[in-house]
Structures are given as structure tokens and as C-alpha cells.
């Protein structure tokens, strides 16, 4: 476990915290540091788990899961958040399923040039994510219209908005408390 504040291990958790830790467990049976850092305030952990799963792992989301993960990695790149990038890039690369394509996308994100590998709808999503992350006070209706013009419906636009908003929250939580991946299983899809 790694953070600049105390994180309570499972064996020291009281009943209320244990209940929320069980809610936060990954498919690997672990509690990642991004959630455990809330252990001093279980109510914020509960809220975080619910928001995360609704924004990114909800079966009703229409955007392809690989693209949701690329958006997550892009926002985390823009925010210089190594924790979220490590996890969500691992997920994106797994879901892309083509190592050469994944390497090209990673290089484009690292260079801050998604236009070298994306176009149309996907590029419009990444441009929206970039502006909302770096210049949220400059957002205008035309930013949403551009997504519609690229072929997204309003539900998909909301999905993109929620993923971007969630990762801006999570990146600031992680960077602000010095949370590391020490002890975590990296990536949602990693075999146990």
C-alpha cells in the first residue's frame, strides 16, 4: 500500500469499513489503493466505487469499452497521473487486442497527438476530453455540437462527459495524496 496518508489494512478494519472494502473489491479479490486511500472515511469510498462503476463499467454504456479505456488513459496522461494511466492503459491495450495498434495509440497519447491515429468520432471524443480536462471554464455548446456532428447521440455524449469528469476527480485524488500502485494488481483484466 502506498500513499501519503494512512490506509487501513483489511485486518484492522471495523465492521463499517469491512462492508465498504467488500464492495470495493476487484474481480481479483483485492482493494486497489485508489479505493483504499478512502479507508479513513468509508462513506467517500462507497461513493467513489459507485461513481467509478457507473461511469466506466456499466453494461448500459454504449461506447466501446476499449474506447472508454482510451479516454480514461488520455485524461490521465493530460493530468500526469501515473496511477490511473498504468491501470487504464493496461485495460485499453488488452481490449484493443492488437499490439501494433495499441503501441501506435500509446505513442500518439504520449506525444499529445491523438490525431495521428484517430479521426472522426473517436478524435472528436478525445478533443472534447482534452478541452474539458485542460480548459473546463472554456467549454461552450459548440463542443457538444461537435460531438453530435461526429455521430454521437446525447447518451454517448453524457458517457464521455462522465468518464472525463470521473478521471479528473480520480486523478486529483491520486496525485493529491501520493497514491501509488504498490501492492495493486495492475489492470482490470489481468489474470490472477
Automatic annotation (TrEMBL):
Molecular function terms, GO-annotated: peroxidase activity
Does the UniProt entry include the keyword Oxidoreductase? yes
InterPro entries in the record: AhpD-like (IPR029032), Uncharacterised_peroxidase-rel (IPR010195)
Name assigned to this protein: Alkylhydroperoxidase
UniProt keyword list: Oxidoreductase, Peroxidase
Which SUPFAM superfamilies does the record match to this protein? AhpD-like (SSF69118)
What superkingdom heads the lineage? Answer: Bacteria
Residues annotated as signal peptide: none
Give the source species. Pseudooceanicola lipolyticus
> Metal-binding: is it a keyword of this entry?
no
Amino acid at each position: 500500500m502506498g500513499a501519503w496518508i494512512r490506509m487501513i489494512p483489511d485486518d484492522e478494519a471495523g465492521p463499517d469499513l469491512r462492508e465498504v472494502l467488500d464492495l470495493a473489491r476487484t474481480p481479483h479479490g483485492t482493494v486497489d489503493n485508489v479505493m483504499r486511500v478512502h479507508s479513513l472515511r468509508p462513506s467517500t469510498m462507497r461513493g467513489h466505487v459507485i461513481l467509478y462503476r457507473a461511469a466506466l463499467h456499466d453494461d448500459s454504456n454504449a461506447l466501446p469499452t476499449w474506447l472508454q479505456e482510451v479516454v480514461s488513459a488520455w485524461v490521465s496522461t493530460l493530468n500526469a497521473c501515473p496511477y490511473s494511466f498504468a491501470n487504464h492503459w493496461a485495460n485499453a491495450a488488452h481490449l484493443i487486442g492488437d499490439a501494433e495498434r495499441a503501441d501506435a495509440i500509446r505513442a500518439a497519447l504520449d506525444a499529445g497527438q491523438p490525431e495521428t491515429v484517430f479521426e472522426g468520432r473517436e478524435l472528436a471524443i478525445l478533443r472534447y476530453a482534452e478541452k474539458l480536462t485542460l480548459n473546463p471554464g472554456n467549454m461552450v455548446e459548440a463542443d457538444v455540437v461537435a460531438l453530435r456532428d461526429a455521430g454521437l447521440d446525447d447518451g454517448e455524449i453524457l458517457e464521455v462527459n462522465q468518464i472525463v469528469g470521473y478521471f479528473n476527480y480520480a486523478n486529483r485524488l491520486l496525485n493529491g495524496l501520493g497514491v501509488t500502485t504498490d501492492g495493486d494488481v495492475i489492470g482490470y483484466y489481468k489474470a490472477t
